[in-house]
From TrEMBL:
This is Lycopene cyclase domain-containing protein. Pathway: Carotenoid biosynthesis. The chain crosses the membrane at residues 6-23, 35-58, 78-96. The lineage of its organism: Bacteria, Bacillati, Actinomycetota, Actinomycetes, Micrococcales. It is found in: Membrane. InterPro entries: Lycopene_cyclase_dom. Pfam families: Lycopene_cyc. It comes from Microbacterium aquilitoris.
């Protein structure tokens, strides 16, 4: 189970940073936008991962994945779009506001 272990640090960092960002203003709007983005990215990942795997562009050795699949795609592939959808807005919320020089 190599791939689940590779994904784990990304998921942990995403959860921690997202939780810290909940103290910042506009958290509800940010989370709703992240949920919509995550849904779209997961859908795109499901479609295109399955197409690429079916076209034999790449494979996943069974001994390196959890065994849970969505079609042909291992569930681990869906962690990355979820992390992006939540982590990037959370980081943006935690960055200090820029002030204009003028």
């Amino acid at each position: 189970m190599t791939y689940p272990l590779i994904v784990l640090p990304f998921v942990v960092v995403t959860v921690v940073v997202t939780l810290f960002s909940l103290r910042r203003p506009q958290r509800r709007e940010r989370l709703v936008a992240s949920l919509w983005t995550a849904g779209i990215l997961v859908l795109l990942t499901a479609v295109f991962d399955n197409v690429m795997i079916a076209a034999d562009l790449f494979t996943y050795p069974e001994e390196h994945i959890s065994g849970i699949r969505v079609g042909l795609a291992p569930i681990e592939d869906f962690a990355y779009p979820l992390c992006v959808a939540f982590l990037l807005p959370a980081i943006g919320a935690l960055l200090p506001e820029r002030r204009d020089a003028a």
